[in-house]
Amino acid sequence: MLTAYTSDEIRTAERALMALLPEGTLMRRAATALAVACVEALPRVYGSRVVLLVGSGDNGGDALYAGALLARRGARVDAVLAGKRVHEDGLAELTRAGGRRLGLSQGTSDPAVRALVDRADVLVDGLVGIGGTGALREPYAGLARLAAGAPGVVVAVDVPSGVDASTGEVEGDAVTAHLTVTFGAAKAGLLIDPGASRVGALRVAGIGLGPYLPEPGVVALTGPDVAGRLPRPGAESNKYRRGVIGVVAGSDRFTGAAVLAVAGAVRAGAGLVRFAGAAEPVRQVRARWPEAVTAVVSPGEDVKDVGRVQAWVVGPGMGTDDDAHALAASALAAGVPALVDADGLTLAARDRSLLRRAAPTLITPHTGELGRLLGVPADEIEARRLYYARRAAAELGVTVLLKGSTTLVAEEGGPVRVNLTGTPWLATGGTGDVLAGIAGAYLAGGLSALDAASCAAYVHGLAGRAAAGGPGGGEAPIAALDIARELPGAIRSLVAGG
Ligand SMILES: NC(=O)C1=CN([C@@H]2O[C@H](COP(=O)(O)OP(=O)(O)OC[C@H]3O[C@@H](n4cnc5c(N)ncnc54)[C@H](OP(=O)(O)O)[C@@H]3O)[C@@H](O)[C@H]2O)[C@@H](O)CC1
Ligand SMILES: Nc1ncnc2c1ncn2[C@@H]1O[C@H](COP(=O)(O)OP(=O)(O)O)[C@@H](O)[C@H]1O
Ligand SMILES: [K+]
């Protein structure tokens, strides 16, 4: 499990460790790791051009010490000093090593600064790290804009400047790095968009903080974590013991969502899929998935007549009228775990009592659906994903899987799980319906809502990458059903440790 922390948690651990070490030890460890990363980013160090963007704090200090190490290896190193203050010892070290400095008396439009940035093989962003607060101020913001056009490799020190290290929020300009070398432990904001998109490749450089870190507020499951949690059939399994999932989805107008949710459930390994809906989606599900047991539910009928299930998935494409409300309510009245998605969430936004259940409830909104549930604009949720995922879990008393460029799973009282698989090619109609089917199958298979949601997001992301062209994530359009098709292969390689 990858663990990630807020700036304050890192600082507390840092203080405890620093009290035991000679002064400057941690900064030297950090600078060495940073210099090594720069060396690896360069075809050769001798004669290369390294430009340091140096802020007033210790983040700038790291950059200066790393610059000194590179200068001693024969790089031409220039430090652009952005703050009114500078880490004096770091600057003295760089000067001793033959590095040069440039002030910003003429501002960031100074042609000399632009020329340096344009010719840099490596541009080191040491403007602000975990000490940053709010939007970048000038001249830092101007330097971040200049870095955006830099032709060289941009290496962020600890955090891309302008990204909130604790949350991933980005208020104004921010550096977009090719590589971020972060010290001691991952910061939560490096894993969560919009900040995560600025990080590039992430390297966590150990400096000895481990024993002093608290319980993390944010974690990410790795492949082995997921493989160890997935429900798998044993010798004594039968289809009922493996988990019967009930799916209430689709309507005479929207039939595809029903087919896609059932596809996710079948391919994720449900023991049996029971589908309940209107006549047309039932016809389509039967045609596409003969494995599913189907039942036409007429308005006013109770869904429990469909047969026993261990978990319900309620919502994709089911519509939002009174009949849909009655159908959703009858499924959610069951005392088994339930997943509520799509139209089910629109119904719940109008009638929150649908989510007040004794059995575990997992909701799987995108930012628009969560916005409707909380009465907050979707773009506000996109800007502050971590905050709103936590708030929704606390306010609604359910497990929340918030979809989008970063998928988060939140439950009150525990760490938020960030999903690290996936590809932007998943942003296409119907992929969320497949995800609902996968997570529902895992709920029916006996996983907790937290594990069902985070394992489903992980395998959905792996299958999405495979559909887009390869395990590392190719670049090709995908259709939602492709994800279902790729699921067995993705799960096979995950379980095999591939
Ligand atoms: N943790 C560890 O284990 C280790 C940590 N280490 C390193 O120390 C770093 C933390 O250093 P830090 O505490 O000095 O803060 P830092 O990030 O340099 O920024 C502070 C200054 O930035 C400024 N500033 C702030 N916001 C701003 C804004 N929006 N826009 C513009 N300016 C802004 C503000 O300056 P002021 O405005 O007051 O002049 C403030 O004083 C950490 O990230 C890591 O790199 C390693 O060396 C060793 C191991
Ligand atoms: N930019 C993105 N990067 C990665 N994954 C994304 C992105 N946008 C959407 N997704 C994923 O695609 C799926 C879309 O689900 P959803 O919005 O419910 O679509 P639909 O309702 O059409 O099925 C979710 O799993 C979501 O996390
Ligand atoms: K930085």
TrEMBL record:
Domain of life: Bacteria
Cofactor: K(+); Mg(2+)
Alphabetic keyword roster: ATP-binding, Isomerase, Lyase, Metal-binding, Multifunctional enzyme, NAD, NADP, Nucleotide-binding, Potassium
Amino-acid positions noted as binding AMP in the UniProt annotation, renumbered to this chain: K403, G404, S405, T406, T407, G432
CC cofactor note: Binds 1 potassium ion per subunit.
Binding site for K(+): N59, D125, S161
Domain YjeF C-terminal, first and last residues per copy: 222-494
Catalysed reactions listed for this entry: (6R)-NADHX = (6S)-NADHX; (6S)-NADHX + ADP = AMP + phosphate + NADH + H(+); (6S)-NADPHX + ADP = AMP + phosphate + NADPH + H(+); (6R)-NADPHX = (6S)-NADPHX
Binding-site residues, (6S)-NADPHX: 58-62, 129-135, 140, 158, 257, 317, 366, 433
Magnesium is among the record's keywords: no
Location of the YjeF N-terminal domain: 10-215
Pfam family, one: Carb_kinase
Listed EC numbers: 4.2.1.136, 5.1.99.6
Subunit structure: Homotetramer.
Annotated family: In the C-terminal section; belongs to the NnrD/CARKD family. In the N-terminal section; belongs to the NnrE/AIBP family.
Function in brief: Catalyzes the epimerization of the S- and R-forms of NAD(P)HX, a damaged form of NAD(P)H that is a result of enzymatic or heat-dependent hydration. This is a prerequisite for the S-specific NAD(P)H-hydrate dehydratase to allow the repair of both epimers of NAD(P)HX.
Protein name: Bifunctional NAD(P)H-hydrate repair enzyme
Species of origin: Sphaerisporangium aureirubrum
Gene from which the chain derives: nnrD
